[in-house]
Structure formats: structure tokens, C-alpha cells
Amino acid sequence: MTDKKEEIEAIPQNRYRALIEKIFFDHYKNGATSIDFKRDDLKGAAIALGIVLPENLGDVIYSIRFRVPMPTSVLKTQPEGYEWLIELAGRGKYRFSLRRANRIVPNASLSRIRVPDSTPEIIAAYALDDEQALLAKVRYNRLIDIFLGLTTYSLQNHLRTSVKGMGQIEIDELYVGLDKFGCHYIIPVQAKGGTDQISIVQTTQDMKCCAEKYPGLRCRPISAQFISSDQIALFELTIEEDEIRVVEERHYKLVPASELDKAEISAYR
User: Top-level CATH class of 4-100?
Assistant: First the structure.
């Protein structure tokens, strides 16, 4: 069985990792827990390495933040139990931050709640990627309502806005909600499909955005993740002591209504 170090060393390098690696070690000193850098540093790193700079500079940062691991040499500087994250630090500014390792993954032993699939077939046929398909299935099947026990409405998806001290952020989808007592909620949803991972970075920026833009509403951040094409894990998250915590987790399996029977529905009581 390969250990974690061997798995890390097996990860192939690409130009995104090479650029991030160059910027990291241009500023890194032993014992550092925070390293600031700017988006423009990518240009200098590309020139120094003789790399053709990607047209979308933001995609370099986004990929390392959410999709692919840090370069092998950066991972080797992490103390046991900690990991380097890239956080927003202002407009065009970023920060490598050393945080306690804390990744959220679906609990494989959790029971599945079967829900009649209300996704229009034409939507399923033309969804362009996992994230788009996931958001559509959550919306059309009213999974946020079911999960939270609220009446919710999709306010906007792929909301791009600026947050003080962070710069520009993007929220995958934003809902507003109402409970039976008349309390209003703001619900940022992050969608994770493919190799994307739930992390403290996006949850933190979503919560700060909601606190700034909707100070009178209670914020309940949600993460949705595909387990399979018809099975979705929903997490309600919070931040405690600079760590991401799961308030609640549920798994929903979308099935044709004909596959449900009375005994199964009664069992859910």
C-alpha cells in the first residue's frame, strides 16, 4: 500500500503548479504560517520560468484553491496535521495560510433518503458540467427546502461580488428562506462535482459576504456534492475556531416516483 508521501510525489506537475511553486518559494521562510502575494506575481514567475502565461490568471489561483493539490515541494513544507491554503486578501491580492487540515467528505455509512426526481429531462440533457447539473438538481428537487425545513427561493446563481478585505468572490448559488415563525435566512450554496473539494476557504468567504450584504438575515451555508449522478450529499456548515464544521449532513437519492412504495415512505416517519 502506498503511503501519503508516495501519493503526493506521484502527482504530476503542470504549469499552474510550477507558477504557484515559484511564487511560494520566492517568499517562503522556515516557520512561516502566512505568505502574501499578488496576482501580478504570476507574470514575473512566468517570465522567470519561461512559461507561456495562461490568458485567465484567475484560473491559476482557482485551480490550486479548489481543484488540484499544491505542488509537491510546497506540500512537503506542511507540518503534520496542517495544510497550505490560498485565501483572498483583497483585490488582486492573495495569501498562503497554514491551517489545520480539515476536509469534509461524504460519510459513506450514512443512509440515503430517496426523493422522487423532479429534474426536467431537458435540463439533465443540456447541463454543461457537474457543477451546473448539481445546482439544477438541487433547485428543481427543492433539496434545500427538504434539508433545512424552510421555504426557500433561488435569488441568484454564480453571484460575483466584492467583499471588504477579500476582493472579488463568487457564490455558486444564493437562496433566501423563510421559516414558520417569519424568520428570514440567507443561504449560500457551494456546489462540488468532479474533483472539487469542500474547504474552509469558500465557506469562509460565503459567510463573510452574507454578513456584509445581508446583515439582518441568518446565514446558513450549504455545500452540495455529487456522490453519483443521482445521489447528492448536502452539508450545513459553520466555522468554529478557524475550522470548518458540519452542523448536519444528509444524502438524497433521486429516483423515478414509480420506484417508491408505501412501505418505504412510511418508514421515513
Answer: mainly alpha
